[in-house]
Structure formats: structure tokens, C-alpha cells
Please model this.
Amino acid sequence: MTGVRKGLAKVEVALKWDPSPAGTPANDLDIIAAVYGAADLHREPVQLVHFGRRSPDGTITLNRDSHTGQGFGFDEVMTIELDRMGEESRRVVVGVVIQNALAGAGGDAKTFADIGGTGFRVREGHTDLAQGDFGDVSTATAATVAEFLRDASGAWTLDARVRGFDADPEEYVRVMGSVR
Model:
């Protein structure tokens, strides 16, 4: 056994946002992870993990879930154990969706522009791999924040581009892994 480790092993994706102003409905953002197999890298995930839906093999865990954004620091945290995933798992897409369908500014669906203090962080151990906010996709109702890809050698890499979607939560889980 060698001491050299290839690629990413166990990562944490964290999400934060400010609570809504007093007297207004709470904002509920959720982290979602979709795992894609070698046979279909973009359409049908073999696993879909979010609040209320667990990872069947235990490799993805939602450690902290918030419905309001109240708390200190990051309000939702998901751990992804890439090094424990089966060989058939080739791609993991992690996204954020605005859950509550209550109207935002102008009576339309809430977008990231309607929610203050949004941000995300991807880290392995104590090392931040990526961090950002949703300013570039402020008119979106959902966004991907990280894509983990397994190469031919079995090593996992991270692509941390933020991509916005104008989709409700149900539609978003169907399109979050699509080719764009």
C-alpha cells in the first residue's frame, strides 16, 4: 500500500444564507446531490440525495439542514465520501434549490436576488477547494455549485462552476445534470 493518494476522498459542501426579514416567510434553500453512473452521465442519476432522501450506500450524508437560514455560519452541510463510492459512480453534481415557492419581488418565484447573504463552500478536511455566492446567477431559482468527476484512473476531481437554472425544485432534479 502506498502513501500517495490520488484525487479527492471526502468532501464537504456547505451552504449559507441570511434569515428573511421579520414578518416575512422564511427562505428555505436545500443542497441536492445527484450521482450519475458510467452508463448515463447526464440524464438519470443513480442516486439523488436531499432533505428527506438518504444515500442508499451511505456515501452522502446531509449533516445539517436549515429551513430558515438562522444559525451561525453555514446552515446546511453535506458530506460526500467519493473514495467509498462504487466503481460505477462516475459523476456527482451538487446543487442548491430555493424550496419555498412563495413569491419574491414582483410576484414571481423567489430567486437568489431575493435572498440575502447566500454563499457556498466546498472543502476537503480543513482545505477550502472552492467558495462563492450566487451573484452571477441572481435571477435563477436553482444552481449547481460543484461537479465531481472520476477519471480513468479512479481519481476524483472538482469543477466548481456556478450554473443557474430557472426551475422549480421538481424540475431542477431532472435537469441539474444535463449537458449545457
